[in-house]
Amino acid sequence: MKAEGGKIEGKRISAEVDHFTKYAVLVVDGDTGLAVTEEPAAKSTNETPNAAFRDVVGHWAESSINRAASSGFVDGYADGTFRPNAEITRSEMAVMVANASDLIVDPNAATGFADDRLISTWAKGAVNAIRTLGLVKGRSSGEFDPTGKTTRAEAVTVLLGLLDVTKE
Questions:
Q1: DSSP 3-state of 154
Q2: Which of 76, 106, 116, 119 has the most CB atoms in a 10 Å sphere around its CB?
Q3: Where are the beta strands (DSSP E) in the chain?
Q4: CA–CA dist 104, 15 (Å, integer)
Q5: Going by C-beta distance under 8 Å and a sequence separation of 6 or more, which residues neighbour residue 119?
Q6: C-alpha–C-alpha distance, residues 145 and 16, integer Å
Q7: Which of 93-102, 104-113, 156-165 has the highest mean pLDDT?
Q8: Contacts of 108 (CB under 8 A, 6+ apart)
């Protein structure tokens, strides 16, 4: 089945379909109509997805970060670094993971964490969805710690866990 009228926005492709099934995404040359079988050459060493970032050598998540870069879903900055310790909130991470994976979220869901009442409405469904998949377990106190900071390294590790879950 061919889905007409799809949209490409950055690294995301979307198309309307009229039934549920498995789909494959192919890149087709607009001039020839043939499938593209090779990736274009990288513009520079810093833009190559498998490039090792000089600031992750020896970092606890070095292999996870490099694996994520090789998979093409994270990249560094123009200076060849990844900044693995840059922080985001745990709620922001949950929403990013849920959005990136198109998880079905219920904004009224109870998350099961001890601090469920502190999780913002805009993040609660995402937090519950990634907890249900076993991607986050919370802090040792049983709390999610929604406003607590998480590092890019922790986020990459959660994303890799998502990839592992979706391959099963």
A1: helix
A2: 119
A3: 7-9, 12-14, 87-89, 149-151
A4: 18
A5: 91, 111, 113, 127, 144, 146
A6: 37
A7: 104-113
A8: 124, 125
